[in-house]
């Protein structure tokens, strides 16, 4: 038997062992189940017989949750680029430059 054939058989046996260990793992099956549930929910909508998830009963259904932080962050960056503060009623902090320090003498 050629040495490369022996090496190939060892690699295949190691792969079979690793796959068997993964398939025995309950964490793997929980992960697959959660992915399957998300895909099914995306395709067919929410199952009305399942209980509500944490925070789902108090969430505003009209609000888009995926763009919440990102939209606020982009608005803040735009305001900073324009030089406008986010809250116009709040006073701006005093700027300290070297000119201000020399003028105070």
UniProtKB/TrEMBL annotation:
Pfam families: Mrx7. It comes from the Eukaryota. Residues 29-105 are annotated as: Disordered. Residues 34-62 have a biased composition (Basic and acidic residues). This is Uncharacterized protein. It comes from Microdochium trichocladiopsis. The lineage of its organism: Eukaryota, Fungi, Dikarya, Ascomycota, Pezizomycotina.
